[in-house]
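2024-03-11 09:14:02 DEBUG pipeline.ingest accepted 1 chain
2024-03-11 09:14:02 DEBUG pipeline.ingest length=125
2024-03-11 09:14:03 DEBUG pipeline.predict start
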Amino acid sequence: QVQLVESGGGSVQAGGPLRLSCAASARTLSRYFMAWFRQAPGKDRSFVAGINWSTGATYYADSVKGRFTISVDKAKNTIYLQMNNLKPEDTAVYYCAAHVGFIQTYYVAKLYTSWGQGTQVTVSS
């Protein structure tokens, strides 16, 4: 099991940036696939971006491609989500998640075994 702690949420005007961080603690992280999900009020939790810890391969939801970037700092055991050109529809609670090994259905939230507590992102127009 991996412990995950998110930080970096807040309020921002549309068009602005925010960077989320997710500090991970585990005996070894090299086998994990890490992802960011988000959940807006009244909606299901949805996939935002994912990264293979060992290879660095990245995956994005169509709605954030070209605006968001997921990355990993292995020395700090931390993944980041750089969010640029934010839109009001990006408003949600953002969660960091971890899964042991890569799965083709990486966008399915219920397959992830470890979750952070979530951090609120609010984008005003």
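2024-03-11 09:14:41 DEBUG pipeline.report The mean pLDDT is 95.
2024-03-11 09:14:41 DEBUG pipeline.predict end
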